């Protein structure tokens, strides 16, 4: 049971779906890594219009690269840097890429199992 | 030709009670870019959900922040209740609403004090915090705590408020209202305050929407939006309209927050008037299996909670998107083009809560 509809999409559909929502007047609410499903990360991006919201959900393999939507939704850069810093999600073409320096943490990508971390 | 330099701001700074760092790129005294970094006190509370059972985790959720502690605990409970299809009793909904609005009043009064302190108005700072004490005393009387309350549980509330206690709150609220009216003039009409806040840190309505701003920061840019309009808890039975301003500057943010304190007092009065008798908690059976998104209006704006359980006593995932995090892009926008001397005021006008952000 959720607040808003969840739409399952492939990562290649993300820019198109985000653009459709932007043109529909939706604002960005949040972007996050929900959980692990097998090897994959489940990502959910939430958008709102008025009091209703819609969630775009996709599965991302640790080796996959997700295209940034920061050129469509400007504040996305912050959430994308967060997903990169905490979970090690690879995101390309972030409008403001802090290259792992948004979160000043002792441990890099703390929410990712150590055996998966890049050397 | 102007000189370009980078000035580090924070994580230790007199106006920042909590650590956030900004690299301010300056041309002479003018800020042209601000690069944030956080994580200095990141606690990993979200991941702790894997090690505390879903009932005990309420106490962890409350500790995300010392100002919105009630709302963090309540929203977590509401997300779990949503998964488990638990309908809490009507009285519990009203109790939650009253405590939520008391949290908003004490948060906004705390902010007003910090703002006054930042522009050097010491007596206004002391008066704001003195008024806030009355609300904290009401919290202590009704919950036993002044920071962490532990009155939420899955299915309702742990503590009730006697009707005599609720009636006793009414003269206290009247006193808070009268005292706030007395200092409102200083905040909104004082020449020195106006000089520091007027036309400083403009965020237009379009920018506020596009940058995903939330809460009073967004409403001060003319957007009439408030998650309480969803009608969660007792809000569906109470009348209110979001407080907005079209001035879009730091002064507008101050005006909106003051307006929201008066609005919260009014909402508490309505809730005390309408609160029904009855149970304060519903029985909890089974274990959470499923997922839920819950959005609530915290003092600083819309917060989103995600909870996912797989039928075990330990939840799979808990995630909070805090209002401060959502307001950072808007803050970076308002900092562009401002004078270095205005940076502390501008940071304060989003009412940053780094404790929430570093959950």
Short description:
The complex is a heterodimer of chains A (119) and B (359). With 119 residues, chain A is of the alpha/beta class.
Overview of the molecule:
The complex is a heterodimer of chains A (119) and B (359). Chain A contains 2 helices and 6 strands. With 119 residues, chain A is α/β, with parallel strands linked by helices. Chain A has one domain (5-112): Beta Polymerase, domain 2 (2-Layer Sandwich), CATH 3.30.460.80. A 4-stranded mixed beta sheet of chain A has the order 1-4-3-2, covered by helices on one side. Chain A has a two-stranded parallel ribbon with strand order 5-6. In chain A, strand 2 (27-37) and strand 3 (40-49) form a beta hairpin. The mean pLDDT of chain A is 87. Chain B has 359 residues and is of the alpha+beta class. Chain B has a single domain (4-357), classed as Cytochrome-c3 Hydrogenase, chain B (Orthogonal Bundle), CATH 1.10.645.10. Helix content of chain B is 46%, strand content 14%. Chain B has helices at 57-62, 69-83, 90-118, 122-143, 163-189, 191-197, 205-210, 215-219, 250-274, 323-335, 343-349, 354-357, and strands at residues 4-9, 21-27, 30-37, 152-153, 156-157, 289-298, 301-310, 317-321. In chain B, the strands form 3 sheets. In chain B, strands 1-2-3 form a 3-stranded antiparallel beta sheet, with no helix packed on it. A 3-stranded antiparallel beta sheet of chain B has the order 6-7-8. In chain B, strand 4 and strand 5 (156-157) form a beta hairpin. The longest helix of chain B is centred in the first third of the chain and has 29 residues, at 90-118. The mean pLDDT of chain B is 91. Chains A and B meet through strand 2 and helix 2 of A and strand 3, strand 6, strand 7, strand 8 and helix 10 of B.
Indicate how many domains the architecture of chain B comprises. 1
- CATH domain class of chain B: Mainly Alpha
Q: Radius of gyration of chain A, Cα only, in angstroms?
A: 14 Å
Stretches of chain B where pLDDT is under 50 for at least 5 consecutive residues are none
């Amino acid at each position: 049971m959720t607040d808003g509809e969840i739409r399952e999409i492939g990562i290649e559909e993300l820019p198109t779906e985000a653009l459709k929502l932007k043109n529909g007047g939706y604002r960005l609410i949040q972007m996050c890594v929900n959980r692990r499903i097998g090897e994959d990360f489940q990502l959910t991006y939430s958008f709102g219009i008025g009091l209703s919201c819609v969630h775009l959900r996709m599965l991302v393999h640790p080796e996959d690269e997700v295209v940034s939507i920061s050129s469509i939704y400007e504040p996305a850069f912050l959430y994308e840097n967060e997903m990169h810093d905490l979970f090690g999600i690879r995101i390309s073409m972030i409008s403001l890429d802090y290259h792992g320096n948004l979160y000043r943490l002792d441990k890099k990508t703390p929410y990712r199992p150590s055996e998966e971390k890049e050397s | 030709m102007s000189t370009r330099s980078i000035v580090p701001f924070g994580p230790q700074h007199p106006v920042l009670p909590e650590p956030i760092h900004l690299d301010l790129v300056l041309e002479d005294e003018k800020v042209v870019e601000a690069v944030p970094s956080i994580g200095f006190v990141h606690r990993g509370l979200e991941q702790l959900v894997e090690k505390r059972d879903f009932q005990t985790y309420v106490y962890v959720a409350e500790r995300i922040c010392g100002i919105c502690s009630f709302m963090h605990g309540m929203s977590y409970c509401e997300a779990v209740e949503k998964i488990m299809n638990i309908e809490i009793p009507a009285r519990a909904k009203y109790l939650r609403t009253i405590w939520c609005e008391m949290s908003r009043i004490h948060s906004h009064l705390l902010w007003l004090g910090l703002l006054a302190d930042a522009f050097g108005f010491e007596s206004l700072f002391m008066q704001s915090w003195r008024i806030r004490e009355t609300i904290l005393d009401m919290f202590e009387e009704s919950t036993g705590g002044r920071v962490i309350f532990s009155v939420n549980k899955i299915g309702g509330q742990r503590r009730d408020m006697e009707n005599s206690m609720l009636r006793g709150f009414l003269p206290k609220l009247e006193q808070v209202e009268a005292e706030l009216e007395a200092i409102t003039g200083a905040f909104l009409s004082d020449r020195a305050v106006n000089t520091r806040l007027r036309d400083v840190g403009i965020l237009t309505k379009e920018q506020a929407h596009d940058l995903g701003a939330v809460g009073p920061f967004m409403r001060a840019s003319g957007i009439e939006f408030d998650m309480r309009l969803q009608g969660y808890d007792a809000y569906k039975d109470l009348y209110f309209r979001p407080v907005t301003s079209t001035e879009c500057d730091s002064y507008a943010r101050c005006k909106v927050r003051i307006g929201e304190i008066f609005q919260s007092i009014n909402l508490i009065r309505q809730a005390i008037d309408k609160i029904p008798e009855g149970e304060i908690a519903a029985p909890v059976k089974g274990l959470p299996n499923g997922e839920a998104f819950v959005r609530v209006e915290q003092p600083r704006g819309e917060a989103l909670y995600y909870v996912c359980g797989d039928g075990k006593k330990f939840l799979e995932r808990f995630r909070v998107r805090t209002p401060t995090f959502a307001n950072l892009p808007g803050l970076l926008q308002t900092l562009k083009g401002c004078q270095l001397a205005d940076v502390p005021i501008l940071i304060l006008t989003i009412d940053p809560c780094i404790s929430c952000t570093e959950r």
